[in-house]
From TrEMBL:
UniProt protein name: Thiol-disulfide oxidoreductase
GO molecular function annotations of the record: protein-disulfide reductase activity
InterPro entries: DCC1-like (IPR007263), DCC_oxidoreductase (IPR052927)
Pfam family, any one: DCC1-like
Length: 140
């Protein structure tokens, strides 16, 4: 695989309104333009989950470093969110201060928000189709 194929991938809940708005925000601020995206119910995500059985039934964002490579690593919940923040850089890096909060507490907060995300941001019937100019960054 080429390096472009090993670009990081963010797995997300494709029908979640909050998640879709988050992806749109990431796209607007992604200066490198290399982060790719895949819905949790996509073939790509299913393959990642098959390689990482501990992800079975995951209901969280998953940041995948070096996808499909021998060194592939996955970060979930608050660790995945912090990976996105680190990837974006710039002023978003200020959010990395959240690392001082123990991971267990961060993940409990993440889980509480995730439990109400459909009430906050709504739920789509299907995963929205990305805009043509970014469609190539979405994996099926």
């Amino acid at each position: 695989m080429t390096n472009a194929h090993a670009a990081p991938v963010l797995l997300y809940d494709g029908v979640c309104g909050v998640c879709n708005r988050s992806v749109q925000t990431i796209l607007r601020h992604d200066r490198r333009g290399t982060l790719r995206f895949a819905a949790l119910d996509s073939d790509f995500a299913r393959a990642v989950i098959e390689r990482h059985p501990d992800l079975q039934g995951i209901d969280s964002m998953v940041f995948v470093d070096d996808p499909g490579q021998p060194g592939e690593q996955v970060s979930v919940r608050s660790a995945g969110a912090l990976k996105v923040v680190r990837y974006l850089g710039g002023p978003f890096r200020l959010l990395l201060a959240a690392r001082i909060i123990p991971a267990g507490i961060r993940d409990r907060l993440y889980d509480r928000f995730a439990a109400v995300r459909y009430r906050i941001g709504g739920k789509h019937d299907t995963c929205p189709v990305p805009a043509p100019e970014v469609r190539a960054r979405f994996l099926g």
